[in-house]
Amino acid sequence: MALTKVIGDGAGTLNSLDISGVTASTVGQSLIPEFISNLFLAGNSASSASLTSCFTSTYSVYRLIGVIGGDHSDEAGIYITLLSGNSATTIDSNWYGAGRHGDDSSAEGAVQINANNVFIINPRQASTGFSIVDMHLYMQPSGITISGNMALHDQGGDRGFYIFNAKNSSSTVPTEFKISSSESGNMSASNLSVYGMRIRQNATSKMTGSYS
């Protein structure tokens, strides 16, 4: 059975829009979250992994969801770095933000922006497993906001949570990202999917209401 959404045409007439199927489009043309790409890193294979050309437009929200693993030799923090132009430019300045974590040992702590302006998305990852992470990037032409949370399982067996928010005021627009470990050894398996959704259509005829 086809799903139907009832909409109005502005003149009091109700019309029907068939949404039983989703037509593929690039981010910026649809309010439907669109799968863009996937990053997969097998366990004990590399100390970092990058996903290129996954961010394509501003005034959009990108969702990164999946699992991230830690270092094989130690408990590790997992960083995310935003890049632009096939990794030619690292967006490593003008970061502001922090995170808060807690676990079942009643240990709580705050995580600040790293000294080299790389943001931590997992403060204590066990080498024996992985943690689920769900984060959003809100992209503007001169600013990026990151907001997310994750389920924590550290090397000592403690389980808990981590929530984080950060803002970057750089004028450089990212096109890709990299995840890496705070330790020198290889990372455990990681698997992140990227989805995108446009939040502004850039046409005044689409606007409801008025402005001055």
Please report the first level of CATH classification, the CATH class. Answer: Mainly Beta
Count of separate DSSP helical elements: 0
Q: What count of structural domains?
A: 1
- Reported by name, the CATH topology is Jelly Rolls
> How do the SSEs run, as a string of H and E?
EEEEEEEEEEEEEEE
Main sheet record: 8 strands, antiparallel
Percent strand equals over 45%
Q: In angstroms, what separates the terminal alpha carbons?
A: 45 Å
In the predicted model, the low-confidence regions spanning at least 5 consecutive residues are 1-8, 14-21
Give the overall average pLDDT. 75
Helix content: under 10%
What sort of overall outline do the alpha carbons produce when their principal axes are compared?
A: globular
The computed structural class is mainly beta
Put the structure in a nutshell:
This protein has 212 residues and is an all-beta fold. The chain has one domain: Jelly Rolls, CATH 2.60.120.
Give a topology summary.
Layout: E1 4-8, E2 14-18, E3 34-41, E4 48-51, E5 60-69, E6 76-84, E7 89-90, E8 95-103, E9 108-112, E10 119-125, E11 130-140, E12 143-153, E13 159-168, E14 176-181, E15 190-198
Antiparallel strand pairs: 1-2, 3-15, 4-14, 5-11, 5-15, 6-7, 6-10, 6-14, 8-9, 8-13, 11-12, 12-13
